Amino acid sequence: MAGPLKRTTNLTGLAVAQNPRQTLISLYNKVLSAVGDLPEETGYRRHTEEITKNRLQIVESETNTELIEQKINCGQVEELIVQAEKELNLVDKMKEWQPWQPLAEDAPADQWKWP
Amino acid sequence: MAAAGLRCCIQNLSRHKRILPNISRLTSYNKTAIWKNTRILCTVSPSVVQNEKKEVETRLSEYGRYLLDIIPKYLQGVNLAHGDELEILIYPDALIPTLTFLRDHTNAQFESLVDITAIDVPKREHRFEIIYNLLSLRFNSRIRVKTYTDELTPIESITPIFPGANWFEREVWDMYGVYFANHPDLRRILTDYGFEGHPQRKDFPLSGYTEIRYDDELKRIVSEPVEFAQEFRKFDLETPWEQFPAYREDKQKSLEAGKEIKEEESKK
Q: Region B38-59: what's the mean pLDDT?
């Protein structure tokens, strides 16, 4: 399919992923659908969609994991999987926090004044 | 005088390049001059350095704008300190969302908590400024997150997000007295076991309040109020000439209790 699996990731505790391409595609699609629930025009949704769509396009166009790693240029596929899982986790929290709203609390006067 | 002699020495050497200089006759100062002359000096032209600095500044300010685009709710400000250190200023309740975002977002990945510190500025309403330094190993960049609190308001502990914050927060508690809510084990870390006070606060004196000595009668260490042979002398080490005209403070606002009393008396 994508050639023989590599023997090790050289990172302690990170096992070599079986079928990384499929995992990545499913994770990126999950992220995109989760982010789709956020209101449009929010900075977080726009930027996350851009990053995820870009990576998804690269993963779908390439079958060789090494080429995927090179093109995305953000570490090994196992690390990419971890990053996608974290982003998915973060989207849920962002739905709750809604950080795109305007500034919630103003600083007291002269709080950040230095000296 | 010595410099003129040195210059002549170097010129003579350059004229007689094939002949090795008679090093034994020269003083050690002249010897270093010879080595300087023969070493290849690598200089960087001024424009390259300025371009690098501009590049760093633009890159960091763009990232600051990126953060402002994503989390405007939390950011009270974005600074670029010393030309190459990005700082974001947030209010204390925004701490956990901001740090979770910086750790988990693909375009941030600040996985490593480098340090948590505090600074004490007694004049401010919220006197303590808590500072979190983060490092992204993936993108080789650093960021600083700053919040504020006062003596009595607790601040949320970030040990659920960064387990390494445990001892850092203990240190800030010990040194400044900032209480961290939901900390797994908040106790003193640097001060002695029965120590009272928070040493790094600005109102804590340099010598402290107590000193210990071994008492021969009681056969143990005793803690007593600190005693000095000479009373504390404060020297005003400022120069007579004004150093920072841009930061001239209004003289009426400066803290001089005696002066105020005199003014009140004169008014009466």
A: 76
**Distance (Å, rounded) from C-alpha B145 to C-alpha B153?**
19
What is the ipTM metric for this complex? 0.94
CB pair distance less than 8 Å for A111 and B93: no
How many A-B residue pairs are in contact by the CB < 8 A criterion?
90
Most A CBs within 10 Å, among B106, B140, B148, to test the A interface: B106
pTM score, two decimals?
0.80
Bridge partners, B85 (sequence order): B81
Partners of residue B147 on adjacent β-strands: B130
- Look up residue B120 and give its two tokens: 């004490």
Shortest alpha-carbon distance between residue B90 and chain A (Å): 8
Q: From the CA of A23, how many Å to the nearest CA of chain B?
A: 17
Q: Which residues pair with B223 in a beta bridge?
A: B212
Alpha helices by DSSP H, listed for A1-115, are 20-35, 43-61, 65-72, 77-97
